[in-house]
Design goal:
By secondary structure, the chain is an alpha/beta fold. It has a single domain, classed as 3-Layer(aba) Sandwich (Rossmann fold), CATH 3.40.50. Helices cover 37% and strands 16% of the residues. It has eight helices and eight strands; from the N terminus they run ααββααβααββαββαβ. The strands form two sheets. The protein has a six-stranded mixed sheet with strand order 1-2-8-7-3-4, with helices on both faces. The chain has a two-stranded antiparallel ribbon with strand order 5-6. The termini are far apart.
């Protein structure tokens, strides 16, 4: 059935517009061979790992999923998250599943943005990743009213914009778990820092932050 649908409505790569896959092998080749630990301009609150630079096919694919209605990019990105988590487990950055459960927490998104995008793409990608690595997804972070659009803001302004505006609900049985905060792009680190801080007030320790791209 999938092959028949591809004949009728062939998939178009969100990174290069070629037919064949949502995010083709050629575009995936522009990512780094394995996740790299990176630093943000603002203290992100926990070790940050990224899969590539925010540019080229990866940037186009992320924007296609966020701003151009390409909801099918979420499963493709979920597979990338899952592959990165597998690498992090292999090399000791995360515990293997037999030693600690894994919880994936999507970064917060405003309700307005989620409505415009037909849901939160990071949460959808997290659900795909969780199914592949045996994790649970806990979308417990939210933004309060008063947060402005961060586009065009400086690092300092982004930080001020978010202070006190990220809220976290409690997660049962998270004490002994590895907790990974997922986001699509690491820009200044302000969002992740406020997210890590909000989670800490509920007793949750973030083990790592994993993003698709860093600016």
């Amino acid at each position: 059935m999938r092959a028949l649908l591809d004949l009728v409505l062939p998939q178009i790569c969100a990174g290069c517009d070629r037919p064949g896959a949502v995010f083709c092998d050629r575009c995936q080749g522009s990512l780094w061979p394995q996740p790299r630990q990176v630093r943000a301009r603002h203290d992100a609150g926990a070790p940050c790992w990224a899969m590539g630079d925010y540019g080229g096919p990866l940037r186009r694919a992320i924007l296609a999923g966020k701003d151009h209605g390409r909801r099918e990019t979420a499963p493709a990105f979920g597979r990338l998250y899952a592959a990165a988590i597998g690498w992090m487990r292999t090399f000791g950055e995360l515990d293997p599943p037999e030693l600690a459960p894994l919880i994936l927490i999507p970064a917060p998104s405003s309700k307005r943005a989620a409505r415009r995008r037909g849901g939160d793409p990071v949460t959808r990608a997290a659900q795909e990743a969780a199914a592949r690595v045996g994790a649970t997804v806990e979308p417990v972070l939210s933004l309060t009213k008063g947060v402005s659009d961060s586009s065009g803001l400086s690092a300092r302004s982004r930080a001020r914009n978010l202070v006190g505006h990220v809220r976290a609900r409690e997660i049962p049985d998270a004490k002994d778990a590895n907790v990974v905060l997922l986001d699509d792009v690491l820009t200044t680190g302000a969002t992740t820092a406020e997210s890590v801080s909000a989670l800490s007030t509920t007793g949750v320790h973030v083990t790592a932050i994993l993003v698709l791209a860093r600016t």
